[in-house]
Amino acid sequence: MKLRRLTAIARKETLHLLRDWRSLIMALAIPLILVLLYGYALTLDLRLVPTVVWDQSRTATSRELLSLFDHSPYFRIVATVDGYEPLQQRIESGSALIGLVVPADFARRVTAGQPVDLQIIGDGSDANTSRLAMNYATTIVSIYARATLFRQLEREGRDQLHPPVQMIQRSWYNADLRSQDVLIPGIIALVMIVVAAMLTSTTIAREWENGTMEQLISTPLQAPELIFGKIVPYFVIGLVDVAMAVVIGRWVFGVPIVGNAGLLFALSALFLTGALFFGLTLSIVLKSQVLANQIAIVAGFLPTLLLSGFVFAIENMPEPLQVLTVIVPARYFISILRGIYLKGIGLEILWADALFLLLFAVLMMTLALRKFTFKLE
């Protein structure tokens, strides 16, 4: 394999990219759009849940409780109704996700120090959001109940009661528990696998469809020189895409790299190599730009989204699916990204994940070289 011929192929592919503005836009703009789109659209945080209230008490005491809901970042009171039927209509229409019912004797019972029941109604058709919203609502009511108890004890001249056991919560590596801090590294992996596989899935197939492969075969060019020469420009573009995604994550979504940025780019290059050769292998085997491109998107996107731990925790999956995730490269890359982004850990802990990425890259490279026959069929 001669470097001069490899460089010539790389130059040829680069010129093709520069002349084909659609390919260049796809290579540079799509990652930018995907990171912004997924970064804003994907969130596990609960914010301003539309809430409908039926306040049967209509007293200063009940309004004090409701003000805690309305001034919290988690709830937004969109309507006040006078019965179960309009409350149900609000939830059925989708204008409210949570309903809060305050009983008529709320103020009297609170003032007398008697227990009182509040009803929280959630829209079960959106189970996850309703579960979170009802948990937050329960927390707000608990805070109100505790503050009310303290005020009553002060009026009676008694000391405040302190629970015998109190839990102090502290979250490491993501103190505010922001979902974007967890999702941005996964979005980078998703964008890389999809874009890298999509870019190289058309390279060899394009040569066959355009009839230029016969010209390449007639030259002294060897198969490895053609394959590696095809990869080089897309590898550079892929690293640029990674840099763009990191910058967007930092300055748009406020997610900095806590660990070693050099290690992050080095391991990203390893994952990128495997993803590029994965797309190239599809191009070699299928010899159809459209088919190879479609399979590259589906085979790269779905496993990364569903089976990598990006959105859904692997520990919560059925055991057969947990076993299946072992062969998903993005699982290990997302683990690396989150480890460097959030925990600041290094290769002494991430070496097993890095080793799998190396095996993935070597396997895809070997498949591409073995499947490519540099001759006319």
TrEMBL record:
Family, per entry: Belongs to the ABC-2 integral membrane protein family.
Gene Ontology cellular component terms for the protein in this record: plasma membrane
Stated name of the protein: ABC-2 type transport system permease protein
Keyword line: Cell membrane, Membrane, Transmembrane, Transmembrane helix, Transport
Mode of membrane association: Multi-pass membrane protein
Keyword Transmembrane attached: yes
Coiled-coil ranges (or none): none
Localization (cell): Cell membrane
Keyword presence, rRNA-binding: no
One Gene Ontology term of the molecular function aspect: ABC-type transporter activity
Pfam families reported for this sequence: ABC2_membrane_3 (PF12698)
Regions crossing the membrane: 21-41, 182-205, 231-253, 265-286, 295-314, 320-337, 349-369
All residue ranges annotated as the ABC transmembrane type-2 domain in the record: 130-375
